[in-house]
Design goal:
Blueprint lengths: L1 H18 L15 H13 L5 H8 L3 H4 L4 H8 L1 H9 L8 H11 L5 H20 L7 H17 L5 H17 L1
Helix pairs in contact: 1-3, 2-3, 2-8, 3-6, 5-6, 7-9, 8-9, 8-10
Bound molecules: NADPH dihydro-nicotinamide-adenine-dinucleotide phosphate and zinc ion.
Length: 180
């Protein structure tokens, strides 16, 4: 029912807020990290026109295993197998070196499920907008440029998934190329 779904969404936002509570974004203002997963879910809902609760819940949890002490078992127990499997799909293997993880995101993008691709698109859209807003602490212009290039490669693997999100990403890539 509607009431049950609303209850699960609120439980999920609360769970994520508690888990990410000590984490900050890389900007000068040290924005609370939870703004990011909530913002990714918001992009999917408001701009992607996605109303599948499984996608919204997985978006709220998309960085929680990568960045906090949360386990997949916990996700599965709290939010079910389908959500857990999507979170698995969008979680990098932290046992691998950073450069390898970034390469794998490009190589694996097109093989992911439709729901995982939606989250990848919204995640990249949020992070690129964040980069346009403010350069993270300690980043050179070169590093920002590299990040745009890498993001475009990942997004290219996720194409044919959501027209609005891909159009918004293309606006950003076009602005970027005009600038370079
Ligand atoms: P990181 O992966 O370390 O940082 C980018 C990630 O940080 C984003 O994907 C996002 O991930 C998160 N994030 C947090 N705050 C912000 C914010 N305000 N704006 C945007 N993103 C934010 O950086 P890189 O992608 O650069 O990865 C490191 C790689 O960079 C290494 O492989 C290394 O080779 C290279 N490197 C390059 C340098 C250069 O000058 N060219 C210098 C140093 C390293 P999330 O969605 O998970 O929150
Ligand atoms: Zn993210």
């Amino acid at each position: 029912t509607n009431a049950e779904l609303l209850s699960i969404i609120i439980k999920c936002v609360n769970f994520a807020a508690i888990k990410h509570k000590d984490q900050r974004r890389k900007d000068e203002q040290e924005t609370p990290y939870i703004n990011h997963p909530i913002g990714v879910a918001n992009i999917l809902s408001q701009e992607g026109n996605i109303h599948d609760p499984v996608v919204i819940i997985a978006a709220l949890l998309h960085d929680i295993v990568e960045d906090t002490n949360t386990t997949f078992e916990e996700i599965e127990n709290q939010f079910g197998t389908e959500v857990c499997n999507i979170v698995k799909e969008v979680t990098d293997d932290k046992s691998l070196p950073k450069a390898e993880r970034k390469k794998l995101q490009i190589q694996n993008a097109s093989k992911k499920s439709h729901k995982a691709k939606l989250i990848n698109l919204a995640d990249k859209l949020y992070n690129l907008r964040d980069l346009q807003r403010a350069i993270p602490v300690g980043w050179s212009q070169d590093r920002v440029k590299e990040y745009f290039k890498w993001s475009k490669a990942v997004v290219d693997g996720c194409r044919g998934t959501n027209f609005s999100l891909e159009r918004e990403l293309d606006v950003i890539f076009a602005e970027r190329i005009a600038q370079d």
